[in-house]
Amino acid sequence: MKKTFALSMSAVLLAGAALTGCGGSGSGNQAANSGQTAAANTSAAGTSAAGQESKAASSDEKVTLTILAGQSTTDAGIEDMIDEALAGKYPNITLEWECVDWGNDFQPKMQQYLQSGLPDIMIGKAQDVATYAPLGVLAPIDDIYLDRGLDAARENVTVDGEAYGLVYNALYQGVYYNKTLFAENGWEIPKTLEDLQTIIDDCNTKGITPFASHMVDTWSIGNVTMQFAMNDVFNKDPEWGDKFRAGTVAFSDSEEFQAAYQYNKLIYDNTYANTFSMEQTDCDAKMVMGEAAMKVSGSWSIQNFLDIDENFDFGIFPFPNQTGDAKLIFEPNITIMTSAATKYPEAVANVLEVLTSDLELAVEIYDYTKTASMLKDVTPTFTNPSQDDIDRYAAAGQIVDVTLGNNQLVWGGFQEENAKDIAAWLQGDGSFEDALKASDGRVKASSATK
Amino acid sequence: MTRMMKKNKEKEETVRQPYTKTTAVVQVVMTLVALLFLAPLVIIINYSFKTRQELYLSSPLALPQSFRLDNYIQAIKKLDMGTTYVNTFIYTAISVVILAMLCGVTAWAIARCRHKFFKFCYIYFIVGILIPYQALFLPIYTIGYKMHLTNTRYGIIFMYVATGLSFGVFLMNSFMATVPIELEEAARIDGCSIIKTYFTIVLPLLKPALATLIIMQSFQIWNDYLLASLYVSKKQLKTLTVAIQSLFSAQTSDYTTAMAAIVLSVLPIAVLFICLQKYFIKGMTVGAVKG
Amino acid sequence: MFKNKNDRQYLFLVLPGFIIFTIGLILPLLLSFRYSVTDWDGIAAEKVFVGLKNYIDLFHDENFLNAWWFTIKFTLGNTIIQNVAALLFAVALDSGIRCQKIYRTALFVPCLISAVIVGFIWLRMFSNVLPAVNDWLGTNFNFMLFGSGKTVLWGLLIANNWQWIGYWMLIYLAGLQSVPSELYEAAKVDGANAIRRFFNVTIPMLAPSITICVVGITTGSLKVYDLLVTSTRGGPGRASTSVIYQTYTTAINGRQYGYGSAMTVTLVMALLLVALIQVKGLKSKEVQA
Fold first, then answer.
1. What's the pTM?
2. B97·A280 Cβ contact <8 A
3. Which of A109, A141, B15, C183 minimizes the number of CB atoms within 10 Å of its CB?
4. What is the interface pTM, i.e. ipTM, of the complex?
């Protein structure tokens, strides 16, 4: 009897010990990811916090901030740069990074953390501000930091008069074109659809594919459709989304939106025959090698183009619209948000300070991600053959922030789904009217706030 | 019954089947099939040595210009392999050991006790096999968070055990018939308690079954993505599959690093399987026959 | 209830597993039930009760029904192809060829790879590698199976079968090796040729293996998700969206968590039903060895 008892007790203890993961570094690091109970006590004799921090000579309190980064394009790796810069100025602050893919995982992660407590800092896209600020979970960003950024960055991250996001860099979206091909064939940058059609026709007679595209990636369809919508719908009616939800306009009777959808067909009819199987690498390779003349895309393509051929000469222009006055589109990319419930507002402010004032860090990040700066007086130094085109449009005030459109009609659940219907229509699995009706049917999902 | 079948197998093995013309044809066909099956893996390994330029511009079937380890080094760096490998290994090893203990015990109790509750238990556990936990991700996270299981080593191990119990109990249960009840009864007559009987008599006999269970659960947990991404997001606690996902993102065209990462992550499991093949096959045999 | 001292000991053995399983899997399922009768969006603090509205809406939801249709097609395809192929390969391996172990390993290794990686591998195969084979051989097959809604199912079937055939083959192999040779002898004496022997002796004796394989393949196929995430993402368009994929997209990206939970509950019910029917149906055909 005694033996059994002893045996069973030891079994339970064994199981218990195993379940607690052998104590040690596991539970030492445990913080029920609200991040707020992070190892901040230096008096804990340095045993916890996985020994990342060296014993600081200063009496500054050691702080660990949690940071969730929704990354896209080629962002992966900037966290090391930021860590280095931060360590230089504020060695007592450590960032605990969680990096996820923005497209697929940022929203689910935010949903998770809304249950348990947001990380101290979140890096997403500008459109996330419109989703999460109204819930009251974000803290407004201090003007000191906002003033170091371009004014153009503020408008679309402002909710009820307060800015809740700090925009760090931007992508440009438009039609990338092969400068050499254009020069050889005497093509001018098209300002109207007729101009564009001339180039398309010329391409077809010469055996050049007018457009490079990889429609197998449905997101690419969604992205270009919003580009079209910016210059045909939202330029005239910046509140089209609100009206849509109010019931006064609809896809089925909006000529402008239908035009935007129809441009997809224009591209589909003038691109690779197997665009629905062609993946991005091939698509870009063909473009660089001169088989295609243009590609409707964004700055993420720059990295690919230059990888294939560092001497590829390309430029960018906005896809022409019905009225011939299309503007070049920029998309605020890395947007820094802070939690309203953070326990370390001072440390968070320090991080913001480093990010907005460390110009070397900024250039390093811009060069690495091949993006445009949204901080004042900072210019990246990487070769961007399309830079003079961008500068021209910017100087003439012919640029527009796509966040407007993304706030009016959200990406997840709406734009993304519409893109699938457009894909089905282009492939002949549904009619154009079906695609429009499906978009209308989704009206409830078109906004992040109910 | 089992003894008789064993004898038959031995008889078959000593009597070699004649190598007829049909057999030769089958041999050729199966060789082709095996080559076709291995082809994608060979291609991945091939890719893992290529540079980005070769990726874009040369044929996928071409051999790399040189067998450089650049991609592997990149993969190791990007995936923080030191940490993720160790983490994945720890989670897998500990979860599997716990599962082996729990499933054996649970399945045995269910098989031996006549009480109604245990029949209910059997069905209760089996239902778990049908539950698609991908769709339950938010409740799983909510419960995990409320119980302070998230971002801890024991939290993720807990979840792996919870999701692995169903299949484990099912598997072990089908092995119970191979444990002769006479031995247990003899031990009981000698005065052993139920619990002691299990640990001293039954457990040793379950070795092949446990081996099968361990192998099957090992590679399921090693390859798990969803639970790991839900429960352990801190850099120090990350697992391999979550780290690899970041290389597959939609807008990245550079997948040479991803290829090297794939090879690095599949290798240990493949090696484990090849070494433990014997036990695995043995275990599956009994399971398949009993049904 | 547990009067017997022995019963109590058995209970002690079962309890830890029971508790862990309940907390980890059953509780979330119950929570999901609860969410499914609300119109929660996954973000807001309040959850508004809406009764069975979500379930009723499900039956009118074209995308959901299409997802089911795709998943059913995928499951049927898998069940037939994997079972037949696994059985054939097992028979081939058991027919006295040399180096059986090597073939076994070669066919089995794919199932050790995680589904997300398998999806990625086959995306590359179809988009890059196989078209290169065209160049090499000078042929012009269409290998871009993920590019059209009409062929995407076949592409996914190929990928999935590549991964799993080896696994089920091992089960059939084990089953085959346990068929007593006396039965074959007896059949030969009766004048049955190889094919008759196969259908009249082998198949009935394999009944338990067939049960395991069919149930396993079916439930696994109905739950397909990981494979799609890295290969087709449910596309092109919605052509390869499975039930779980649709659930995930609706619940998370579409911010309709309550509605998505109703989808989950429906799926669990369906899985239960399918498993029940199959096990009952197949068990009755098993011959007691």
1. 0.80
2. no
3. B15
4. 0.80
